[in-house]
Amino acid sequence: MELNFENSFAKELKDFYEFTKADKSTSPKLIKFNESLAKELGPEWENLKSDYGLLIFSGNVVPKGSQPLSQAYSGHQFGGFSPLLGDGRAILLGEVIDKDNIRRDIQLKGSGRTIFSRGGDGKSSLGPVLREYLISEAMHSLNIPTTRALAAVSSGDDVLREKVLPGGILTRVASSHIRVGTFQYASTTGDLEKIRALSDYSINRHYKNISQKKEKYIDFFEAVCESQLNLVSKWMGIGFIHGVMNTDNMTISGETIDYGPCAFMDRYDPNTFFSSIDTQGRYAYLNQPLILLWNLARFAETLIPLIDKNEQNSINILTQKLSLIQGRYENAWLKVMSEKIGITVIQDGDLKLINDLLDIMKNEKADFTLVFRYLADFIIGKEDLLLSLFENSKKINEWIINWKNRIEKEGKFDKSLCTMMKKINPLYIPRNHLVEYALDEALLEENYKPFYNLLSHVTNPFDEISSSEDYTLPAPITDKPYKTFCGT
Ligand code: AMP
Ligand code: MG
After folding, report:
1. Ion ligand 2 contact residues with beta carbon within 5 A
2. pLDDT at 475 over 90
């Protein structure tokens, strides 16, 4: 069966890529294939758990209809602007229209050098491939918009980092790979028609409902802001720290992208960050909304020539729109957090109730994930679970009285509330020590069992699985802080 690739990006945005071929893999092995995602893509994709699939996912065969290319983009990295980044280790095979009629990119990541590779080798080691597979699929299961992982392959080739590591390739699926950085790239050309072409393509692909609007570029800006602020508010609700919120890692679609140094926070501390290269904590948990705003301001700058012929008018309009984002973000965040504690209709006082809880959690360094999960259990009489997370139970007990009173203003403090809360508050997340263990076993021992086991838990995050207590607990406290590294 043919894969029916389409190549609209190649056709419509000729100034934004170079055609590129993947390197061949010496002795590829399929480590994991995502059957449920393949189902979404269509029956011909389901057949790819096969030797033919491996040929494609390893870069050894270019499937019929595909026009592989690497995309150009710029980006602010840790606040500094790089005019030319681009896909240095990724190629887009093409697009597929899925069973819901949505156009999705199929990309190989780690498949060799491209013209954007600069000093890099264009490769990925297997560790970061498995890490992205685990965490992006966990995010999807947590109902957070994200790029997906279709296949993880070991290439059989060595990759040289600080030491020699096994190479890997991830097949990534995204609703597109257009980033704020892609707009910055268009902007660096100074060519209005390029900015317009990229905007029109993005509107058609992601925000079709505004394509006929009179002020469609203003609406486009607002729509991207809305998608992104919703996304970041959802990250905050599950304790996700992206780790590298550079403008080249921020999609126009509103999907989470780039799982290099990301990690989930365990004990609640709003200043948490894990990335080894983020020495100042620029991308710490609590800074994420501020960085979101900063990145959206960079996005706004790229649209100035499109909004109005008079530059000052454009700036005024975009500045006014930007000034509303923080309030909109705060509302989105309040909604996310209210739902986590069982509140559906927000009232005065709810913000304080949530902040009071977060303060107690912070003082006690309570586990972010388990507090919310065990609040649900508290309702059905399993009070010890929650109380075990706090050394000093006085404060949390006082808070619970306020919480119960608040819930009873609106509804019932009963089993159905518990059930509802358990659909929102996960029990299984990719905890750092579990991810590290799974990757160590895979890489050092070629034992993939812990990886598969962890994957099956984090892709089923809300329903309790029997005999799985080890998957719920935070890591024991050690002197050595957890650090993550960019996924190259
Ligand atoms: P990232 O940190 O993944 O957002 O990547 C930032 C930039 O570095 C992008 O342009 C990547 O394509 C590029 N890059 C990262 N790793 C490699 C590599 N191993 N070889 C070539 N380019 C790379
Ligand atoms: Mg990136």
Report:
1. 249, 258
2. no
